[in-house]
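pinned: reference chain
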Amino acid sequence: MTMFQATGAPGEAGRRPRVLYVTAWLPTPASSTTGIFVERDIRALARIADVHVIHLVAPHLAQGAAQREIWKQAGRKITIERVPTTPTNPLSLLRAGRSIRRRFAHADLLHTATPASLLALGAIRVPIPWVHTDHWSGYADVQIPRQHGDESAGQAQMAGDAGDRHAGVFIVNGGAPPAPGAGKRITLGALGYVMRRVDVLIGVSTTLSAQLAQLSGREAITVPNIVDMALCEARPHVNPWAAQRPLRIICVANAVAGKRPLLAVDVCAELIRRGRTVELLWVGEGPLLGSLREHAHASGVPLHAPGALPPERVRDSLAVSDLFLLPTVWESFCLAAAEALSAGRPVVMGDQGGQRAFVHAPSGALVSGDEPMAYADAIEAVLHATAGLSAAEIARNVRQSYSEEAFVGRYRKIYSSVLSKG
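pinned: its structure tokens
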């Protein structure tokens, strides 16, 4: 008995392709928030394909996770098969690759996501059509040429819209990132090599797609993440400055250096210096969480840092917040920011990365550099610009452009195209 129930040849009337989906990121009992967006993708793809998932689960995330799990989605079953894999161990990756290879005979198409799934197949011949989608923020180290184009044109560059493809078109305004270390360069080189073997290479933003194209020397297309955060209507106060309560600022991110959590505190301290009453909520785990708490206390910034929260509690937190802030160095997409906009909350964040496609005035602002005053100025400007706007008005563009329907439509075209050539 095969893992997929579909019969006949791909493309037959009523025939759903059998997709073998390989990822290193999925939620487990040890980390309920890891790879939530990948799970969302898989469930959406089950609308157009029979999906079997191989989860290359890191040992520290495997505790409490079943080796085999069944998801039910719209009356269909998605099988999750977990293969313990250490992404930094070549022998572990080789064993994972052999586990993947055993499933090829029962699949019409291979769809990989995350860098580890590529590395696991570095020494494995793939005899079926192959699609790869990447979300990794680690490609920030890949420098792309200063050419024409911008993330603000990203809506026209999405696969399945105009069908545009590109290689290195994003203008970087904030200067080149520091050169990666030797180990990172080796990893990026290996990833670029394997990317050249796939049939369709996909990034979740036009910035990331340009970096994938630069790294691999081949074309890449863009299919953005699904953004499905429910609208939080109404806003706590349409004009927060007029409210007799603190301005509530929310950050949703891991407390790591690239997200600059201490700068978020400094921004709030600057607003307090200007006479505003501010509360900061940081949702997420990370090694800098202790430093964040200490810095907030020393700076006189009221902080609530509950750690990671499930999606429904993130939405509850957005519902009582006035603005989303993330002074990030770089983002591949920034689903958290898109979800904040989808919920109807304005956004202020760093200006480098995929967020340039959807953070626009009046509902958002992007800030260059790392000056607290610049971020505080942007927050005040955005709050004044959105005074009088409803949550639905703030959310409209994101909710229309990043729906599950749009995502499924793009992948239906990609799957159909690659299978017709295979």
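why pinned: The longest strand covers residues 76-82. The CA atoms of residues 16 and 49 lie 5 Å apart.
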